[in-house]
Every structure is written in C-alpha cells, then in structure tokens.
Inverse folding.
C-alpha cells in the first residue's frame, strides 16, 4: 500500500493453485466462478468448509499485501477469512508452500505476517497468537453460557440467540455500534457499550452465525468478552488471556495403553483424570479435537500431488519481471524444472529476459509452454517435472 508503480512492478505474485480432492483430480479447465461474477460466491460452512480446508494446493506469493492474499483466497475457495484489527492488512507477505492443504496455506500466510490462524466451524480468523489460541475455546464457552441461561432469559430472546443471523458489516463500520445494533436486533440492550474502544473496520462478509460466535469475533479483538445479566441485558466484561474447557473422552479398554502413550507424547503437560475408560481433561477446543483424533487412530493423510500437466495454475507477472525470478518462484512451490541443451553460462542472459503475463486457471500442459514461449524452446510437461530442451546449434 502506498508504494509507487516502479516498486510494485519489481515484485511478482504467483499463486499456483493445485485443485485436488480425496476422490479425484481436477484435470481440466474449470468455470471461473471467481472474481467477476455479479453474485458473490456463497461462503462455505460446516463440513463443506472442512472439506475445502483439506483441499490440496500450492501457494507462492511475494510482494502482495496480506489483505490482497486473503481476499484472493476467499474468492477462490469460498472460505470466509477475517483479519483481526491488530493485524496490518497492508503488510507484505512472502509465503511459499508445496502441495499442502488450504489450511496449511492459510497458516503460512498468517505466519508470514507474524500472526496465526484459528479455524472455526464457519470462518477463519487471522490474528495475534494469544487471540487466535483462545478464540474457539472462548466461543464454545460463550455458547454454553447462553445455553445454561435458557430458563432465565426471555423465551423470545433465547430463540433469537439460538438462531443464525447475517452479521456482515460494511466498510468503516464501528465495532461498538455493531454490538449495540446486534443487541437491539435481538431485542435487548448493552449496559456498558463504552467498554468497546472506538475503531473503524474494513468490510467483512460472513456466513450466517449465532450471536455467541459473532460477539466473540468482535470483542476478542479488544481482549473483551460478554455476559448476559439476569435481566437479559448484555454486559461487556474484560476477557481472559487464556481459556480452557473440561471434556470427557471415552477410550476403548484395548486401546487405552496406546492412547495414553500418544497423548503423553504430544501433550506432556496435559493433566488427565481417569475413571475406567473415561478420561477427563481440561484444555482448549483444538487440543480436545486432537485427543479424539488420536483415539480414532487418525493421522494426517499423505496425498500425492496431481500430475503437473493436470494441475490448474493462476500466475501473474507484472511487466519487467525477469524470467529467472519466475523460475525461482515456481521451484520454491515444488515444481521441478530441468533445462537441457544450454550451459549455465549460455543460460545466464536468457534468465534476465523479462516477461509479462496474467494466466488464470491454466492447465500445466498449456501453462508452461506459454511461460517459456519467448525462448523458442521445446517444453515437455510430465507428471512430476517440466523439461525445457533447446535445439542443437
């Protein structure tokens, strides 16, 4: 942001998107439902969101802002991604991954901005480590708190709290007003809205959410939380630095010894109270999910990348980009490029040649010949490598 055109022209954005599912490889050009559609893409939630996070992709992004990277990812995947107010959206990211899950790609973008990501049921938050570490657990505590008050709250208020609503906000929205308006829409008021500092936020589009998730998303960014009073009004309260919840896990007797060993290896400080085959632990939501995963015997599945010629690539190189820089960026993304018929000395001036292109979801079989067309070289795209063969002089 604020950089002149010359500076921007010296940078390159390459987003090599490798679409893959556990059942099939996307092997041809797909309809571009992306950016120019008049209707915004429907945001994914629940299982559809989890499946999208498990899709495999390769990302290499240099010289673009975190805000741009997030907008591009949201448009491409349908995953709602929210930047915490304490994360600078104009910060330039430099993230490169091989063929990994979208979840890992998002985490890489966050880490490049000295932040971390929290993956909720309906959206993703990128923010400071302390805030994202507690986010899902805090939201779970708030949902349970509302559930526990179901007999104390007005019936209509409780029904409204239990439903999902559209809480998206426009550009220059005031978070204090967002909470005040939300409470009014529920049929109640905020006792102390002045607890929420004045701020102006950029537009955010969210899928429908219950109030507990929305309010946690807003207030956690100020290290605040909320409570409902006995009168049914909303009170803003200071937030805790870290939060945990208690949960019981049932472990089959024949698996207990193996499960205990794995739990102790991954979480050596976790205190577990056993009663027969039931284990009671106090931890974050993410830790509880991992404990259950270990009980099931699940592990991260290793997925082989689709053949290079079948992958879909989106790449943009501004005018004046050296082709050598393009090759370096592609190689960082896990693409094996071999050159035959030229020595390093002969190749040096060719690497300085500049290119300009903007390719969207181009199959590898077409993508690489287009990238290297100025070299008048034979381009062969195999399953696991790209071979550039120069004619014999």
């Amino acid at each position: 942001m604020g950089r002149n055109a010359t500076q921007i022209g010296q940078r390159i954005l390459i987003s090599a998107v490798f679409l893959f599912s556990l059942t099939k490889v996307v092997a041809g050009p797909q309809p571009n439902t992306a950016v120019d559609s008049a209707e915004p893409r429907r945001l994914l939630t629940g299982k559809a969101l989890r499946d999208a996070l498990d899709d495999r992709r390769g990302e290499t992004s240099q010289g673009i802002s975190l805000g741009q990277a997030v907008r591009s990812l949201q448009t491409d995947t349908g995953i709602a991604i929210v930047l915490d107010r304490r994360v600078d959206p104009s910060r330039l990211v430099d993230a490169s991954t091989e063929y990994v899950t979208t979840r890992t790609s998002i985490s890489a973008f966050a880490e490049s901005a000295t932040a971390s990501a929290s993956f909720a049921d309906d959206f993703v938050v990128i923010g400071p480590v302390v805030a994202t570490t507690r986010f899902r657990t805090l939201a779970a505590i708030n949902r349970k708190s509302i559930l526990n008050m179901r007999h104390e709250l007005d019936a209509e208020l409780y029904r409204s709290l239990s439903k999902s609503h559209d809480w998206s906000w426009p550009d220059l929205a005031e978070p204090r007003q967002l909470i005040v308006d939300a409470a009014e829409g529920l049929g109640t008021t905020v006792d102390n809205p002045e607890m929420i500092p004045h701020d102006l936020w950029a537009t955010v589009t969210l899928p429908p959410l219950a109030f507990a998730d929305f309010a946690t998303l807003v207030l956690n960014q100020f290290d605040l939380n909320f409570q409902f009073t006995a009168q049914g009004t909303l009170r803003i309260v200071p937030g805790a630095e870290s939060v945990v919840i208690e949960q019981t896990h049932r472990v089959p007797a024949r698996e207990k010894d193996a499960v205990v060993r794995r739990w102790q290896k991954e979480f050596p400080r976790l205190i577990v109270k056993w009663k027969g085959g039931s284990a009671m632990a106090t931890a974050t939501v993410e830790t509880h999910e991992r404990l259950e995963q270990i009980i099931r015997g699940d592990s991260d599945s290793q997925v082989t990348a689709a053949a290079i010629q079948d992958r879909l690539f989106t790449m943009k190189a501004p005018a004046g980009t050296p082709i050598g820089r393009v090759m370096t960026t592609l190689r960082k993304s896990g693409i094996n490029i071999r050159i035959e018929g030229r020595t390093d000395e002969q190749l040096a001036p060719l690497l300085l040649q500049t290119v300009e292109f903007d390719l969207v979801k181009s199959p590898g079989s077409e993508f690489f010949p287009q990238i290297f067309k100025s070299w008048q070289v034979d381009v062969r795209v195999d399953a696991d490598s790209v071979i550039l063969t120069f004619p014999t002089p």
Q: What stands out?
A: DSSP finds 13 helices and 20 strands in the chain. The first helix runs from residue 5 to 9.
